[in-house]
Specification:
mainly alpha, two-stranded antiparallel sheet, 59% helix
């Protein structure tokens, strides 16, 4: 598996931002009332991830270490503004559905985390594929949650009615309204994470464990709750030990 393919596999499977690293929970829980909303939010975030990773990787030797986080935020904010205008101009219905959550991509910890932990330390091409992998992983997570919530809450998938609704007391599907409300997002997320944990446990029993998400000791800021916000030196604990 070459490095670029590995970055995509890493983002979708090994370190899925939604189901493994549990990052970006605010948009994950808020916008996934339907599959189309989840897909739109995921793809918007993917575009910003890829473009910001590319530019930050290009400028990694130019940006001073002390101001790297503000510089990353400026880069990300620029691409978020472009994406916001494009969505507003060409897909106004999606823009109305996502609302404030498109501008809030600026502070999405997935983007800042990948900028800090990967793009600022690696060449351009691997950084682009890292953004694609993480973005697709986020998109898959949001879309899966949106599909489950939309089916249970409205009997639809991507706006198409797939379960006949009960009319006038007749036979048919009665939507479970709670799944299109805020509590439903927590229920669905918990179930999907539990399924992912079962899959990981079975893989471990078969001798093919999926690597666990690495914390700050591994130098991966994307896997901690303060991803992208580290302001100290980027030396990892293991590097310091080796240097000592």
């Amino acid at each position: 598996m070459n490095k670029c393919t590995e970055r995509i596999y890493n983002g979708i499977i090994k370190e899925n931002p939604t189901f493994i690293l549990m990052l970006g929970m605010c948009p994950t829980l808020a916008v996934t009332t339907s599959a189309i909303n989840g897909l739109g939010m995921g793809l918007s975030t993917t575009v910003v991830l890829v473009m910001s990773n590319m530019l930050i990787s290009l400028l990694r030797n130019i940006i001073p270490d002390k101001v790297r986080v503000p510089a990353f935020i400026v880069v990300v904010a620029s691409f978020v503004t472009i994406v916001q205008f494009l969505v507003q101009g060409f897909i106004p219905s999606l823009y109305d559905s996502l609302g404030i959550y498109i501008p809030l991509i600026v502070v999405n910890c997935i983007i800042l985390g990948r900028a800090e932990s990967y793009a600022s330390k690696n060449p351009v091409v691997p950084s682009i594929f890292d953004g694609i992998g993480m973005g697709l992983g986020f998109t898959v997570g949001l879309t899966c949650i949106g599909i489950v919530r939309e089916i249970l809450g409205a009997g639809q998938i991507f706006g198409a009615q797939v379960l006949p609704l009960a009319e006038n007391g007749g036979l048919g599907y009665t939507p479970i309204t709670i799944f299109v409300l805020a509590p439903g997002a927590f229920f669905v997320l918990a179930c999907l994470v539990a399924i992912m944990n079962v899959v990981r446990a079975k893989a471990e029993k078969k001798g093919k464990p999926l690597p666990a998400a690495q914390g700050c000791l591994a130098g991966d800021c994307a896997s901690c709750g303060q991803s992208g916000m580290c302001t100290g030196k980027r030396n990892t604990a293991s590097e310091k030990k080796e240097n000592a």
